[in-house]
Amino acid sequence: MTTDIVKDYYGKTLQTSADLKTEACCTPDDMPSYVKRLLSNVHDEVLAKYYGCGLVTPLALEGARILDLGSGSGRDVYALAQLVGPKGEVVGVDMTDEQIAVARAHVDWHRKKFGYKTSNVRFLHGYIERLDELGLEPGSFDIIVSNCVINLSPDKLAVLRGAFDLLRPGGEMYFADVYADRRLPDAVRTDPVLLGECLGGALYWNDFHQLAKQAGFLDPRLVTDRPLGVTDEALADKLGAARFFSSTYRLFKLAGLEPLCEDYGQAVVYKGGVAHSEHAFVLDKHHVIERGKVFPVCGNTWRMLKETRFSRYFDFIGDFSQHYGVFAGCGTAMPYGTGT
Ligand SMILES: C[S@@+](CC[C@H](N)C(=O)[O-])C[C@H]1O[C@@H](n2cnc3c(N)ncnc32)[C@H](O)[C@@H]1O
Q1: Count of C-beta atoms within a 10 Å radius of residue 181
Q2: Which fold has domain 2-252?
Q3: Domain layout of the chain by residue ranges
Q4: Is 123 helix (H, G, I), strand (E, B) or coil?
Q5: Pairing state between β 280-284 and 314-317
């Protein structure tokens, strides 16, 4: 069974990130310096058992309530705990006993390190396909993060639906995962090492977009992507010509987002004020919004800024009263850069 293979891989086969055979479950070092500072406050044992593939530190988190799906040894939970501050909360969920044990062993160490009176993190043992069994209040999370986990799930739609239910309106899923440029053959999907290494279970990107929409996330936004190299010859041989990408998406829970980017002649102006983003605010790969500049947006982007925690950082120009057609450049080609 898939979940048993994955539990064994992360609980027993791997001892530290040095045991990984590919770079799928590794995050490159070129991260912002403030994230490096957050990670320097995280316990060595937690860092050693980190197997994520991207950065899940969205902006403007002060006081937020965050859930981490497949939190592993807790690296992202402890990084986010510093960003939400003592009034926020970060909850991690994982099914592997060994990983949860490491995460829980260091709760008090981190509380002291961060100078908090009470800890603002907790770790739940459970399955991300059955989030409704964890006693969490529907609509109670501002953000749900996940780092290189959903590819491992045998029921990805259940994961996305459960996350949708737990988010409050205007909340978002912000997560890094592995995707492929095509649907993978059975031999690849069922290979235990390829599965454990976060490649075998990778979704074809377009299937992921459709699945996200089915779960209620109507306009998936790509934030970052990078091609993944597979240097192990035997594994590369099994994978054939398929190409893989580590990508970070954000999925807003906003009812009634439109299937395409529609132009209502609207624009926004970023006023500044978001920590670590004084000069420009990055919503996604196509929206780097410089401070003080009038930035034309489609109706969906307008709502992602106006009906979320970002609203107070923007001025909004226009409304939905007049439609000017589809927003230019709203395409359907593969969204990732191939690095070639
Ligand atoms: C690649 S590791 C990533 C761990 C962590 N996010 C990190 O960045 O270090 C995958 C983690 O997801 C957990 N996991 C995989 N499938 C799961 C499921 N269906 N339910 C709960 N946890 C799961 C595994 O136990 C493992 O800890």
Answers
A1: 17
A2: Rossmann fold (3.40.50)
A3: 2-252, 258-340
A4: strand
A5: unpaired
The three-class DSSP label of residue 231 is: coil
- Say how many Å lie between the CA of residue 302 and the centre of ligand 1: 34
Residues in the chain: 340
Ligand 1 atom at minimal distance to the Cα of residue 53: 8
Q: Which residue minimizes the CA distance to atom 14 of ligand 1?
A: 70
- The rounded average pLDDT for each run of 10 residues, N- to C-terminus, in the chain (340 residues) is 83 80 68 95 97 93 98 98 98 97 98 98 98 98 98 97 98 98 96 94 97 98 93 91 96 96 97 97 97 98 98 98 89 75
Q: Is 77 in the pocket of ligand 1 (CB under 6 A)?
A: no
Give phi and psi for 316, each to the nearest 5: -120, 130
**Unique residue bearing structure tokens 């939190």:** 71
CA 72–ligand 1 middle distance (angstroms): 5
pLDDT given at position 2: 79
**What architecture is the 258-340 domain classified under in CATH?**
3-Layer(aba) Sandwich (3.40)
Are the CB atoms for 150 and 127 separated by under 8 Å? no
